[in-house]
Design a protein that fits this description.
Length: about 500
């Protein structure tokens, strides 16, 4: 690895000594240096030696397994303790975030161009669904999208015979900072990212539910669902999504490397494919999971999103699995719930596109324990079809689409208020969003099927949509199925 280290350092030295870079550094203005080069294909994207240098780590792998990324450190961030969706202060927060994002384009000096920006994760991060002061989510901001100091990412495109690995280094250059200081920073990053790390030993993780009275959770849930149905009967709301949480004690605190390894192993299974794997570490907290639901992705001007709502258990064999699938497709309750979400997405996209495509009959999307009604939606964002330099309205898209009725309810403003009033958990990043974007591309997932790990505690979350004829018992069983997704990921190597 010594030769690779020398090669990476030499490439950065060549970049920083270019006339354009030198002139930018001499200007006296704030400059963001963004340097990208090849990375050894044989190495995994997560490097423990590199991650130890930073308190913030972010991992993401897309549902099609076209790429995976690992970002460490923070060069700068767009953050707000207030949420960037429809509640109070939205317009002001939205305008501020957009202004800072556009200003960055003028400050950044890079050696990568628009033509290869498809999978370059310039900003990564996430946004909470809601948040109360203090508590288990206190390590996370309400909304935070940050430019990492280091990103290692692999792409595995269908038109490429092999994986391509790259490393992206971003420096926010202070006035008067010397080139020699930047070179030293790059050398330290290079050395940490290229250290040989032994193969990860399989760890048997044991979990014990931290519940003194297991039935208490069921009783609380029954009261919550009954309250939801009572409010729906008033006709002020059509649907509300309620959630609950279960806390587990771990026999050992497992590392970020172990979590990422388990996510990758799970995604390699047939029942784990089609999910976005994610991990977001801030301070002592790690929120991670595998989400079957994408908020949206953008390549060029093509946007993809999906409605994922209405679910049933997987069958224990192919025959029962198919039987459950037919039941789901013929369930009036689930079809109605799904159609709420689809209509909302399509109507929302109309202000961004005049070309929206979707199939009106839902399909089935299957995960490890659950199968969902699923409607993929595509849209052509406004702009020239051949234009690859139009900056995507990423913050407006997030603000408009999130939270969808699939995780909140409909009408969403009323549902959001009801959730905050009656739900007895702080959702934090659960049912929030995680992902990445740059000026021309984005991939944002709804952060469901997740768990929050702090020390040797793991809290697993799940929810489901409540409509007029919902059954508390049936909905409780649905939350158990969804929680089992995380348990399956943890226990996969023990099976």
């Amino acid at each position: 690895m010594e030769q690779a280290n020398s090669t990476l350092s030499a490439a950065f030295s060549k970049f920083i000594n270019q006339a354009e870079v030198k002139n930018s550094l001499k200007s006296g203005n704030e400059v963001i240096l963004s340097f990208m080069t090849q990375f050894p294909d044989s190495l995994p994207v997560f490097r423990e030696t590199l991650a130890k240098l930073y308190s913030t780590v972010f991992y993401y792998s897309d549902s099609r397994n076209e790429y995976e990324i690992c970002a460490c450190g923070e060069c700068l961030s767009l953050e707000n303790s207030d949420l960037l969706h429809f509640d109070s202060g939205n317009e002001r927060s939205l305008a501020f975030a957009e202004q800072k994002f556009l200003e960055l384009q003028e400050k950044i000096v890079r050696n990568w161009s628009e033509c290869c920006s498809e999978f370059i994760p310039l900003f990564v991060g996430g946004m909470k669904f809601n948040s109360r002061p203090g508590g288990e989510w206190s390590d996370y901001k309400g909304a935070k999208w940050f430019l990492p100091e280091v990103v290692i990412f692999k792409t595995n495109q269908s038109d490429s015979p092999s994986e391509i690995s790259r490393i992206l280094i971003n420096f926010r250059v202070a006035k008067g900072e010397k080139i020699s200081e930047l070179l030293k920073k790059a050398e330290n990053i290079s050395a940490a990212s290229l250290v040989y790390e032994p193969e990860l030993k399989k760890a048997r993780i044991l979990l014990t539910a931290n519940e003194q009275d297991p039935k208490a959770g069921e009783r609380d849930w029954e009261r919550l669902v009954s309250k939801g149905k009572e409010l729906i009967a008033t006709k002020d709301i059509d649907k509300v999504v309620f959630s609950r949480a279960t806390e587990y004690n771990l026999n050992q605190e497992f590392s970020t490397a172990t979590i990422i390894s388990k996510i990758k192993n799970f995604k390699g299974r047939p029942d784990g494919s089609g999910c976005n794997g994610y991990l977001y570490r801030e301070g002592k907290s790690v929120y991670w999971g595998c989400s079957p639901e994408k908020l949206f992705s953008v390549k060029g001007l093509k946007l993809e999103t999906e409605a994922v709502a209405g679910s049933i258990a997987r069958g224990v064999n192919d025959e029962l699995d198919r039987k459950n699938e037919i039941m789901l497709l013929s369930s009036e309750k689930n079809i109605d719930e799904h159609n709420y979400v689809t209509r909302y997405i399509v109507n929302t996209l109309k202000k961004f596109s005049s070309k929206i495509s979707y199939v009106k009959t839902p399909r089935i999307k299957k995960t490890a324990k659950v199968q969902h009604l699923w409607t993929p939606v595509t849209a052509e964002l406004k702009g020239s079809e051949d234009d690859t330099t139009t900056i995507i309205p990423v913050f407006k898209l997030i603000s408009s689409l999130f939270p969808t009725p699939a995780v909140c309810g409909f009408p969403r403003e009323v549902a959001f208020r009801i959730i905050n009033e009656y739900e007895n958990i702080d959702r934090g990043l659960f049912t929030g969003i995680v992902g990445w974007f740059n000026f021309y591309s984005a991939n944002i997932a709804v952060s469901i099927r997740g768990g929050l790990q702090r020390n040797n505690k793991l809290t697993i979350y799940a929810g489901c949509g409540i409509v007029e004829d919902s059954s508390p018992e049936t909905e409780y069983e649905e939350t158990l199925l969804k929680m089992n997704n995380i348990l399956t990921i943890i226990d996969y190597e023990n099976q």
